[in-house]
TrEMBL record:
Organism: Flagellimonas aquimarina
InterPro entries per the UniProt record, alphabetical: 6-hairpin_glycosidase_sf (IPR008928), 6hp_glycosidase-like_sf (IPR012341), Glycoside_hydrolase_63 (IPR004888), MGH1-like_GH (IPR054491)
Record family assignment: Belongs to the glycosyl hydrolase 63 family.
Top-level taxon of the source organism: Bacteria
Any Pfam family the entry gives: MGH1-like_GH
Keywords associated with the record: Glycosidase, Hydrolase
GO annotation, biological process: oligosaccharide metabolic process; protein N-linked glycosylation
UniProt-recorded name of the protein: Glycoside hydrolase
Length: 435
């Protein structure tokens, strides 16, 4: 059974791998290379084809801008099956954007640090992998420097995102109150996603108007970070994004130590790391709700909703013992009923929970992968194992979907897999879970 599933996962990855040396997340729906997808995908390849794993990482990092920024989508081809494409984003507005690749002017969570660390683990610390890492690691480091020097608005070790797509959790209810502060124009455009996936599982047209409008604001300022921070209607400190940055800092420090030298870079990362952890705990942890929350910088307030992102600081190692205990309690109480798979992307006890809609409720395999490692880090082995088993069961029962219903007895559908099918990171992380 295990081997059969792994072989199926390999087929998904192979079918999605492209000649240009990158892997699309899902045919039709997502025809380009996405930043955080690429990292997770590389882990799947690494278990059976190290060369492809390295190519995936290399191609992504090759698209880095002169200022260290790495875009969220690299438009390697002219496919028009996705909207908004390169002509809408116009990354060339930024003077330091890549001259080689067209891309978006926004980013996604910086997973590459811990991905390099995991690649070395998978390849059992080989000299070849270390050699590969020595060639790539400075690009990842420069990406972290970019974040700290350009996106740490209050100089507190926490970096902002200026667009919901930067969070990776696109239409989370987290942003609903921010949308209420905006009144974007009605854009005229042809949706492509809903020709691949049932519209009820995707964001609404009006939500897309907001997404497009924020990009237009950023474009007006040629994607200048300082101006975006001043003018974007969306400016958020995301516990997921910052936890990933912290976890990747930790990995870079470890890898630089292994490589030798690099004392200044290690010192820089360590000082930022300390500050980031302190601020994450001081500013984003909410004792009353027992969870890390998003912070809306534009409106200067914590957003009082709990999502799977709220638990990802476990993966970064930021919470102290008591905070970790509190987080686990919240996860079990609100997300972990016996009738549920872990871990819903949004609080199942909240009225905004929607079990079938994208980031408003369904289970995502990449979030589960981070939660599994986070829970294990703090010794919650049983709960971690449950997250892993639930992930495997969902994929085994339904296929390699993009997201899954968290209800064990889902009354509305025979199948509980939604969104894109043959989705790359669901396949890649299943392989990593099983190996
Ligand atoms: C926008 C590719 C990406 C993921 C995101 C997921 C979804 C894109 C979209 O697909 O977002 O970036 O068009 O909906 O939310 O996490 O990286 O798989």
């Amino acid at each position: 059974m295990r081997d059969k599933l792994i072989n199926k996962a390999i087929k998904v990855l192979e079918d999605n791998f492209q000649d240009g040396g990158f892997t699309i997340p899902s045919k039709g729906l997502y025809p380009f290379q996405w930043k955080w997808d690429s990292g997770f995908i590389a882990l799947g390849f690494a278990h059976y084809d190290l060369k492809k794993a390295k190519i995936e990482v290399e191609t992504l990092l090759d698209a880095q801008w002169e200022n260290g920024f790495i875009p969220h989508i690299i438009f390697h081809t002219d496919s028009d099956s996705y909207f908004p494409g390169p002509d809408f984003h116009q990354s060339n507005l930024h003077p330091q954007s890549s001259k080689k690749y067209r891309s978006t002017g926004m980013t996604q969570p910086p997973v590459m640090g811990f991905i390099l660390e995991r690649l070395l683990e998978i390849d059992k610390g080989s000299d070849e992998m270390l050699e590969f890492i020595s060639k790539q690691i400075d690009k990842v480091y420069e990406n972290h420097v970019y974040f700290y020097e350009n996106r740490d608005w209050n100089n507190e070790g926490l970096v902002y995102i200026y667009h919901n797509w930067e969070s990776g959790t696109d239409n989370s209810p987290m942003w609903d109150d921010i949308w209420l502060t905006m009144d974007p124009p009605e854009y005229e455009f042809e949706r492509r996603d809903t020709s691949h996936v049932d519209a009820s599982q995707r964001p609404s047209k009006r939500e897309y108007d907001h997404y497009l409008y924020i990009i237009d604001v950023a474009k007006k300022y040629n994607y200048d970070d300082a101006k975006i921070a001043e003018h974007s209607p969306f400016l958020v400190l995301d516990p997921l994004f910052n936890s990933i940055l912290i976890r990747s800092n930790e990995a870079l420090i470890k890898l630089y130590k292994l490589l030798g030298g690099n004392d200044e870079k290690i010192a820089y990362l360590k000082s930022k790391q300390q500050k980031s952890i302190q601020s994450l705990n001081a500013k984003l942890f909410n004792e009353e709700l027992g969870a890390y929350l998003h912070f809306d910088l534009r409106n200067n307030r914590q957003i009082p909703y709990i999502s799977s992102s709220s638990f990802t600081p476990l993966y970064s190692g930021a919470p102290d013992r008591a905070m970790a205990e509190r987080l686990v309690k919240t996860m079990i109480q609100k997300f972990g009923g016996e009738d549920r798979y872990l871990c819903a992307s949004f609080d199942p006890t909240h009225e905004k929970f929607n079990p079938k809609k994208y980031w408003r409720g369904p289970v995502w395999i990449n979030m589960n992968w981070m939660l599994y490692h986070g829970l294990k880090r703090y010794g919650y082995d049983e709960l971690g194992q449950r997250v892993k088993n639930d992930s495997l069961e969902l994929v085994e029962n339904n296929g390699f979907f993009e997201y899954f219903d968290s209800r064990k007895a889902n009354p509305d559908a025979e199948k509980s897999g939604y969104g894109g099918d043959n989705f790359s990171w669901s396949a890649a992380l299943l392989i990593d879970f099983l190996k």
